[in-house]
Amino acid sequence: MKRMLSGIKPTGQLTLGNYIGALKNFVNYQDEYEMYVFIANLHCITNYQEPAQLRKNLKDAVALYLACGLDPNKSVIFLQTDVKAHPELGYIMACYTYMGELNRMTQFKDKMQKGEKSMTAGLYTYPCLMAADILLYNPDYVPVGDDQKQHVELTRDIAQRFNNLYSETFTVPEPLTQKVGARIMSLQDPSKKMSKSDDGDNKGCIFLLDDLAVARKKIMSAVTDSYADVKLDKENQPGLYNLIEIASALNGRPMQDIADEFKGKGYGELKKYVADVVCDKLAEIQAKYNEIMTSGMIETVLKEGAEKASYVANKTLAKVKRKIGLEIR
Ligand code: TYM
Question: Can you give the pTM of this predicted structure?
């Protein structure tokens, strides 16, 4: 059975972008693949997080993994800090990564260009930790949204470099993105990725735990265009395209089908359709989330996940240390 690994960094509440680009696919793949899914809590602290809020976000994220359909009997679900091998291999991977490579990472470059003053060393080296997160488990595939593809490509380069130096050690993983939904855009600015941090009032971003009325309002006031003609035209009508893509990713209807249905009708009708699709999905997820939060199962899932993940990760780490010459025995 081929293996997959992926993770989400809950610096805030999980978004519809996280669900469509990542989480929903983890759930679909868990029957066919040996699946490792973790909460990337070490990645959260590359900038300051209020401790009580961070704790809540982490617990919510586990509950949402389960509410979205990840099944602990099929997938190994764990918290990054419960597996001590992550930061240790992360440091080692940093020693096989060039600063030039880190300088080229889009996420880092964007922040640099925006003139962010308080960038931490943790943020800079985070792709090395991400490489460790992946390589510890030797997965064949890493299902991610579009924005994380570059980090997986770097992981491949580091793995190949290490294998060439010390003989075959790591599986060189492939990033796996979906045709529909790999990059959900902001509802307020369809040239930007939907993201929890980008706009202050969050009108462009739907959270999985948003009140349904709030989510509906965000969709109804999504920025579109003045063509007044429903068409699938990513370049000229990116806002509309994004809304259709969201609905298609959630209900599986081909995008063209949805566009055809609303041809000649107003944007309002299309938005209402998309809002219905989104709200039905959120309602389903939130009902399960509420059950899980009161069930007491989160601790058990994480404990079992940490044991299974540690077993695999520790074996890889031991092999790496032996090959490098770090062990005396
Ligand atoms: P993060 O937490 O930013 O995002 C988690 C996953 O959600 C996807 N995603 C989106 N997909 C489509 N449209 C969007 N608007 C959107 N926003 C987010 C991301 O592509 C990602 O797949 N560094 C990673 C976390 C991580 C990780 C790993 C992932 C740490 N170690 C190892 C895979 C393997 C991150 O910050 O993702």
Answer: 0.97
